Amino acid sequence: MLWSARQRWTCPGWRTPTPNPDWVDDEVLLGYAALDGYTVMVLGFQGKQFQAEFDTVFTRAVEKVRGLT
Length: 69
Known about the structure:
Elements: E1 2-4, H1 5-10, E2 27-35, E3 38-45, H2 54-68
Antiparallel strand pairs: 1-2, 2-3
């Protein structure tokens, strides 16, 4: 299961009062994946500024976990 940050903030049951809390521009969960018992999470500091780099980092992290299993 893969999630993007945008999907995460609007996911039902998320416990923040607004879909995009104030701190989302500084620290943001860019995405996560569950693979064979492992959870890969990619966190970004100053998330929107570096969001373009997310796809490469996330893909490499998922590939690394797949290589371990």
